[in-house]
Amino acid sequence: MALELHSHPFASFCQKVLIALYENETPFEAHLVDLGNEKSRAAFYALWPVGKMPLLRDTARSRVVVETSIIIEYLAQFYPGKVQLLPADAALALETRMQDRFYDLYVSEPMQKIVGDRLRPKDQRDAFGVNAARAQLRTSYAIIEKQMAGRTWAAGEAFTMADCSAAPALFYSAWVEPFAEGFPNVARYFDRLQARPSFARVVEEARPFRHFFPQA
Question: Where are the domains of the chain?
């Protein structure tokens, strides 16, 4: 099989790429990366010394592709499917990229700050940074709330790469900074994402690993 995805099903950025693959039923071989296992960690770092998941390896084209948005654009260019995750229209493509960046940087990133802080020893936690991350999430929710008053999906009326980013970002953010009551448009958008078969599959595949999520 030409495509190998090196990832972990519980990691939000890995889920972003999995959604894209499942949307278009793109054949690939899954390689589970366990950074806690010395052999698995060494094998992954040999492919990508930075050590950030996911990574796509295309044996047919002798390419290794990293960074989620680039992976999805690579798939759209060389392995296109029925769902056009990056619109052909230039203006819509720009909006898709902008929303994709928004969810990665202003929803996923502060969420991960909060989660990462819970994994630290108590005497090394960063209360100031966590409060700033929570404030960023609330600001982001307010922006999404206004946008989703007139949209079905993140970049308009079609499901795109931006929604692949939004789904896991909102899924985990809701665990650390809930939005259901104060942001009804965000909640309804998240309901639509959860009903999407590709994301529902991702959530189910990640379920066995939920005990790894650090509680407050």
Answer: 3-78, 90-196
CATH architecture of the region 3-78? 3-Layer(aba) Sandwich (3.40)
Rounded mean pLDDT of 203-216? 92
- Is residue 153 within 8 A of residue 163, CB to CB? The reply is yes
Give pTM, 2 decimals: 0.96
Determine the Cα–Cα distance for residues 23 and 82; give it in Å rounded to an integer: 8
pLDDT digits (tens, 9 = 90+) for 63-118: 999 999 999 999 999 999 999 999 999 999 999 999 999 999 999 999 999 999 99
Residue (of 127, 123, 200, 214) closest to 168 by Cα position: 200
> By C-alpha distance, which of 56, 77, 60, 85 is closest to 68?
56
25 dihedral zone (left: phi>0; alpha: psi -120 to 50; beta)? left
Q: Give the integer Cα–Cα distance in Å for 70 and 193.
A: 22
d(CA 80, CA 35): 31
Cα angle 19-206-203, degrees, rounded to a multiple of 5: 50
What is the Cα–Cα distance from 7 to 14, expressed in whole angstroms? 6
CA proximity to 189, closest of 180, 177, 202? 180
Type of residue found at 185: N
Coil vs helix vs strand at 66: strand
Tell me the CATH number for domain 90-196.
Answer: 1.20.1050.10
